[in-house]
């Protein structure tokens, strides 16, 4: 008989091994449900702060979170309460299961469940019930298979993302944001305990519907946590006065218009990180609501703020409220086509400075003038006579800017807008002189991009909310951009606003339909539009009175003090009118300034369109005709102002395309455009 024991033992071990192998094969053959479920698309700011999230297709909030992003005290409390041996077992806690069965046999009812966190994940993945034996066996098999294929941390993450918290809330993060208004990175012991308790009976323990039951369940979790040493006695005492939330807080919805746009442009991307700064966005959205609060039910507002050095948009407020109200809050007014009023004038002046047509100290007429059937008038119907160009821009006079537009040619103004990255929409096939007074369709985004180019020394940098930016085209020279900024910085601020030399311009479109204010300092650019979304007039709305105060408040919310504007470029002509070259002292119309006669000066070398090399940085220029002395300019910057010969070596600023202009003592001129190497 004794001789048979070794045989029996060997046979038993073989049977056990065979059984284990078959069990492993059975577990390995488990057909697992999908381990990745659709999650809410999220839009976050530059610091990963949630701006807006979207429910999944079935209307549930299911927001991704990892164990590293969760308060460690919650994880400790969860494991201690739900599955003490989570980190040791293989998916099924056989000891707990045996205890649960024994208790059920003794009492004739289920006393404890015995389900591990892994088994709960299996149930949540398959959305299976807990009462039937077949369902429990299936959960055990799936749990064992999960433990074979995933790490404990991955299983824990599945639970954190799938646990039910009542209503349409799935996952710890959605619950924490909804019940406490914060991410689950930092939770109080009472908050952690409530979030541990709810998934056991998510509908009957919803704090927004059953705060009493939720409080009782939370208390039981805290008692267990104290008993198991997860929290201290002092922490337990501190939880006694902490109320259970009795309502749901809305999921963050900052920059909703912008978020909708980037989600539509990036289908299938689960997480979109923007350049927006959440704190500033929230502050400017509040400012927008305040600005229209006492101004009727239809006045609307949009605000766009950016760092013009980098091109990053920091805040985008499409309306005073993302609502289906009389303001039509669902319309993103940063993207709506509107008339810019006078806010395009700085572009015209900058281009005119570059062309050598004018200088800030040039005198220009503000008198009645007709261009065929077009007879522009100033907004206030008053003419100022002869004024400095600086004053004409600061007073936003209409006649001088139309004269400059006529001299430049409207097509050149449109080309300048497009170089700035704008997409102007014309009323007809060809641009007319009225474009400089607002006769063109633009967006707030377009206008802020234009002013950002001026602030950056004349070089456009496309504004962006995602990805990296690359410099665009030059809109105007650095000298012209500085001159425009210097003129705008001399504008007096609105009543009550600080006198801080913010470079800004206001505008009001025809019929008081649009009120604008756009400004910049050495780093930031902000644009404000106010009006009605449907384009109807707003009686009494002026850019200076309506939008400018909001602009100064917005700038103040970005930074306590302005970043200084840059100093003048070395080539800037900083002189009075009397010290200007004779042709720049007084503006002459296009016909007078550029009409060639037999005696008009002409650049004979280099010829139009030529490619020429500089000699030691200098260019040989040959001239003919005109009355001495002559003035020669490159891109509007004087190279020689008292030239008494018709041939000279002139120091050039650098390689690239340049427009050479020659003006004689009587104001007659000509020009050529060449490529310097």
In short:
This is peptidoglycan glycosyltransferase. With 677 residues, the chain is α+β, with helices and mostly antiparallel strands.
Question: How would you describe the overall organization of this protein?
Answer:
The structure is a single chain. Helix content is 35%, strand content 16%. The chain has 677 residues and is of the alpha+beta class. The strands form six sheets. Strands 7-6-12-11-10 form a five-stranded antiparallel β-sheet, with helices on both faces. Strands 14-20-19-16-17 form a five-stranded mixed β-sheet, with no helix packed on it. A hairpin with a 5-residue loop joins strand 10 (503-508) and strand 11. The protein is elongated, with a radius of gyration of 36 Å. Residues 591-596 have low confidence and may be disordered. This is peptidoglycan glycosyltransferase. Residues 594-674 form the Penicillin-binding C-terminal domain.
Topology:
Layout: H1 4-28, E1 42-44, E2 50-53, E3 61-62, H2 72-82, H3 94-107, H4 117-126, H5 133-149, H6 152-162, E4 169-170, H7 172-180, H8 189-197, H9 211-227, H10 233-238, H11 256-265, E5 271-273, H12 278-292, E6 299-307, E7 312-317, H13 345-354, E8 363-366, E9 385-388, H14 389-394, H15 398-408, H16 410-419, H17 444-455, H18 478-489, E10 503-508, E11 514-520, E12 524-532, H19 543-558, H20 582-585, H21 590-594, E13 602-605, E14 611-612, E15 618-624, E16 630-634, E17 637-643, E18 647-651, E19 656-663, E20 669-676
Parallel strand pairs: 1-5, 3-4, 14-20
Antiparallel strand pairs: 1-2, 6-7, 6-12, 8-9, 10-11, 11-12, 13-15, 15-18, 16-17, 16-19, 19-20
Family: In the C-terminal section; belongs to the transpeptidase family.
Keywords: Carboxypeptidase, Glycosyltransferase, Hydrolase, Multifunctional enzyme, Protease, Transferase
Domain Penicillin-binding protein transpeptidase: 302-510
């Amino acid at each position: 008989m004794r001789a048979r024991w070794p045989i029996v033992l060997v046979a038993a071990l073989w049977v056990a091994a065979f059984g284990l192998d078959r069990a492993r094969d059975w577990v390995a053959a488990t057909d697992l449900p999908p381990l990745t479920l659709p999650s809410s698309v999220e839009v976050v700011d530059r610091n990963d702060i949630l701006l807006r999230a979207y429910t999944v297709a079935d209307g549930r909030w299911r927001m991704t979170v990892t164990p590293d992003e969760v308060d460690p005290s919650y994880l400790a409390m969860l494991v201690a309460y739900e599955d003490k041996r989570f980190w040791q077992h293989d998916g099924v806690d056989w000891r707990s299961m045996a205890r649960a069965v024994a208790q059920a046999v003794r009492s004739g009812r289920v006393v404890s469940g015995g389900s591990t966190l892994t088994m709960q994940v299996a149930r949540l993945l398959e959305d299976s019930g807990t009462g039937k034996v077949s369902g429990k066996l299936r959960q055990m098999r799936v749990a064992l298979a999960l433990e074979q294929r995933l790490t404990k941390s991955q299983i824990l993450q599945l639970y954190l993302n799938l646990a039910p918290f009542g209503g349409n809330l799935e996952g710890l993060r959605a619950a924490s944001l909804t019940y406490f208004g914060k991410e689950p990175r930092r939770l109080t012991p009472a908050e952690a305990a409530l979030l541990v308790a709810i998934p056991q009976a998510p509908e009957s323990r919803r704090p927004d519907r059953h705060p009493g039951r939720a409080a009782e369940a939370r208390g039981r979790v805290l008692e267990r946590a104290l008993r198991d040493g997860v929290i201290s006695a002092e922490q337990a005492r501190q939880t006694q006065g902490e109320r259970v939330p009795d309502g749901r807080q809305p999921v963050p919805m900052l920059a909703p218009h912008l978020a909708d746009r980037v989600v539509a442009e990036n289908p299938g991307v689960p997480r979109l990180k923007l350049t927006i700064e959440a704190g500033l966005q929230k502050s400017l959205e509040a400012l927008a609501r305040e600005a229209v609060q006492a101004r009727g039910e239809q006045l609307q507002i949009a605000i766009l703020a950016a760092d013009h050095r980098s091109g990053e948009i920091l805040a985008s407020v499409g309306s005073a409220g993302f609502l289906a109200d009389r303001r039509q809050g669902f319309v993103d007014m940063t993207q709506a086509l509107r008339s810019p009023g006078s806010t395009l004038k700085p572009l015209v002046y900058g281009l005119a400075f570059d062309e050598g047509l004018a200088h800030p100290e040039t005198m220009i007429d503000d008198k009645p003038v007709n261009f065929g059937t077009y007879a522009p008038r100033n907004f206030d119907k008053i003419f100022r006579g002869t004024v400095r160009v600086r004053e004409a821009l600061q007073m936003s006079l209409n006649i001088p800017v139309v004269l400059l537009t006529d001299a430049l040619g409207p097509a050149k103004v449109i080309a300048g807008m497009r170089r700035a990255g704008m997409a102007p929409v014309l009323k007809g096939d060809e641009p007319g002189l009225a474009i400089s007074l607002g006769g063109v369709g633009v967006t707030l985004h377009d206008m802020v991009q234009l002013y950002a180019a001026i602030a950056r020394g004349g070089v456009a940098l496309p504004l962006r909310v995602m990805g990296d930016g690359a410099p665009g085209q030059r809109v105007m020279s650095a000298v012209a951009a500085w001159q425009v900024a210097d003129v705008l910085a001399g504008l007096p601020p609105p009543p009550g606003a600080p006198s801080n030399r913010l470079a800004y311009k206001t505008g009001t479109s025809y019929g008081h339909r649009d009120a604008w204010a756009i400004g910049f300092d050495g780093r930031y650019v902000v644009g404000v539009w106010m009006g009605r979304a449907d384009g109807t007039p707003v009686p009494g709305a002026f850019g200076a009175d309506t939008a400018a105060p909001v602009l100064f408040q917005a700038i103040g919310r970005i930074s306590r003090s302005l970043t200084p504007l840059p100093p003048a470029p070395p080539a800037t002509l900083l002189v009075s009118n009397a010290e200007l070259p004779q042709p720049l002292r007084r503006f002459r119309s296009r016909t007078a300034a550029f009409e060639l006669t037999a005696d008009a000066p002409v650049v004979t070398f280099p010829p139009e369109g030529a490619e020429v090399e500089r000699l030691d940085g200098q260019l040989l220029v040959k001239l003919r005709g005109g009355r001495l002395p002559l003035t020669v300019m490159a891109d509007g910057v004087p190279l020689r102002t008292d030239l008494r010969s018709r041939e000279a070596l002139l120091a050039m600023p650098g390689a690239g395309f340049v427009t050479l202009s020659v003006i004689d003592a009587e104001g007659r001129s000509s020009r050529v455009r060449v490529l310097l190497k």
